[in-house]
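Lab notebook: predicted structure, single chain.

Context: the supervisor wants predicted structures on file for every construct in the current expression panel, including those that have not yet been purified. This is the next one on the list. No modifications to the sequence; it matches the entry in the shared construct table.
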Amino acid sequence: MQHRSRIKQDSSHSQPIHSYYQTNTTQSVYVKWILIVMIGFVLIWFLGYYIMFTRRKPMIEPISVVEEPISIVEKPISIVEKPIMVEKPTIVEKPTVIIQRLDKKSPPVYQVKAPIYPLAEKKETYLLIGINTIPRSNNVDYLKQTIHSLMNQMNPTMKIHILVQDNTKTTTTTTSTHSVFEQLKQEYKNATHLITFVSSKEDRLMDPFASIPNWNFLDPNNERPGPLARQQNCDIVSLCSNALEHFSFSHFLFLEDDYLTCQNALTNMLHVLHLLDSFDPSYCTYRVSYGMSGLVMSHEKLKDFILNYVSWNIDLFPIDLLIRQYAFDDPTISCKKVQHHRSYAYETVQWEHIGTISTFEERNKQGFRNPFPRCDAHSATVWNLSNDERFLAQCKTGFEPKVAWNCI
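Prediction complete. Output recorded below exactly as produced.
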């Protein structure tokens, strides 16, 4: 019995011994993993330390690399400045040989700028009538007839002023005189409140373009302006530039130097212009005759037409076609297609063309194509006007039965 109890006792002691060894084994595993982790941390720290100190030098080196582009960036500054100095003397300031454009869709290549003539004072008026003139062969006195027919209908209460510009070219070797212009200047020396005479002389704005090589400007189908037509465009720019500089006005009437003023034309003109002031102040053009006569524009429209269109396109069309392009046809600027402003026409012709000797010698050789309409001829019958420029009954305005707009 004692032996069994010893065995039992021994067997009871064997379980704690096994458990002790199992516990010790688990603890040793933990110790090993802790040591491994600690060694790993130490290795990582040494590795990081090594990388930090071995890579420190290249991180400093880019400072010198960054400094070098600073001097490289500075160099182009002087390179950029040089083209600016080269571009300053453009063809606008000093034209050399500028070939006239053949394709009307080509962009402008040159803008003409007119000299401004000195006048004693700036004058104010409601309607300014601008007339360019040069002497005709044999001193034909068309200009005198034109001025007399205007002055006979004018009085100070109308607030109308006439600006006459003599474009006779004077050079260092030749002297030309417009005797009819000088006579009128003397005749109206005491009427400076109604009429102003200016002369371009040696400062005349001359056509800077060379004509299209081998181009037949006399061809009936030709639309490109020859030398004389381009010079007329330059004279228009000059006249209007000086008008804009020296006069304060509401409306401007283009008139050539060989047109007679029809009966009551100025009274009719003022009546319609006052109506336009009320009903359509942003109108584009108002036509009362043909060619470059009897065409009225507001001050703002004239400024836009001359400075932003004609001065850039004197080589593209003659002036009577340039006005048509500006008012109706040009897809980039025209009143009709882009600005959406109306043009108007009076029912009958108010200024009558009397000239048979043209300033264009080529026309004198060819003769005029058709007889020009006389005073009070119906606008719809004028052969050299487009439908946009004619009085058409279906386009009558509501404010004046004798005025129509370009409704077609």
